[in-house]
Amino acid sequence: MTDPVRVVLIGNSFASKAQLPALRWAGGNEVIGIAGSDVEKARRTAEEWSIPHATGDWRELLELSPDLLVITTPVDLHAPMVRAALETDAALLCEKPFTLDAQEAVELTEATRGRLALLDHQLRWSPARRRLRALVQDGTLGEIWSGRAQMHFGSRARIDAPYSWWYDAARGGGALGAIVSHMLDALQNDLGPVEAVRARLATYRKTRPDADGVAREVTADEHATVWLKMASGAELELDTNLMAPGGQGSIVEYIGSEGTARLEGEERLIAGAHDEPMAEVDADPIPTPEELSMPDLGIFSRMLPLYLRDVIGAVAAGATSLAGAATFADGLETMRVLDAARRSASEGSWAIV
Fold it and tell me: Edge-to-edge strand order for the sheet containing 235-241?
């Protein structure tokens, strides 16, 4: 394929701030359509970015013969959109969490076999995370005994945020799906499958006002702590809190029989053998927001252009896979763990994955 990859975006929440700047930086593509639940907003985005087709009905975009369909909508819409996309020849890039549950994920994974169908786990393209994974895979840390991962994304604005699908469990909202799904994908990519899980989920604001000022019940979790027993024998603790102010606190740490490695804030990786000083491990730099010509929305937005560049390249080459990327099959394994975590939180006991 020598022509630009024809891209359509289904979802307009962060298109102007994240997806469209990332696609511009990635190059080799042309965005030919965008759909959003607010059609006027979709039209404004299309005008700003010279996108020829804007609509409030995402099904219209399937008629544009796209090469790549990017789904960035609430979770409950992923499955029907992927099913409809199967009527086209487009490659798929779907936002996470993948689906509402593992049963839905099984169906979509089977249906998309033979085509490029990926999930937006862009942290796999973090240079520092790739170096961390190499330390695990090449045996530098020895047998991994234990570890932890933390992502805290709280702010005053998030504490005061109005009601949206993010706070509706039935639509796939909550910290477990939104953030722990990323953490699980990374850990399983590094360490292999999860065998058992125990989880604690918490909701702090019981109601939030909607756009009309009406108090709506919050049914989704805002804080998730998850303990994992890996098939390898390693044990890990994950914690994410959407209500803890203080910046985007991100830590991943693995403790092994030969040493420890810790990734702090996505850019500082330190490691050392036992009884030796921890030293910084070199990794390629991440492009700055200025280089990307996009606002600094945090680590996810800064990894997205790197990922999309390779996704576009795979689509242009007619590939049905992309080395290192999270597939729908990977998403299915994550959904199985998330389902077990929800069972665990409900029953107050360990759950087998």
Answer: 279-280, 268-273, 259-264, 249-256, 144-152, 235-241, 223-230, 194-202, 351-352
What is the domain extent for residue 191?
A: 126-282+333-352
Mean pLDDT of 270-293: 93
pTM of the model: 0.96
**Number of neighbours of residue 47 by Cβ within 10 angstroms:** 10
Q: Can you list the positions of beta strands (E) in 58-172?
A: 68-71, 91-94, 117-119, 144-152
| Both tokens assigned to 244 | 């803890």
Name which of 14, 1, 10, 17 is nearest 31 in CA terms: 10
Buried/exposed code over 210-220 (b: 16+ C-beta within 10 A; e: otherwise):
eeeeeeeebeb
Q: Is residue 195 located within the same domain as residue 110? A: no
| CATH code of the domain containing 16 | 3.40.50.720
- CATH classification of the domain holding 214: 3.30.360.10
pLDDT tens sequence across 304-330:
999 999 999 999 999 999 999 999 999
Residue 221: name the closest of 110, 338, 60, 77 by CA: 338
Q: How many residues does the chain have?
A: 353
DSSP string, 211-260: TTS-EEE--S-SEEEEEEEETTS-EEEEEEETT--SS-EEEEEEEESSEE
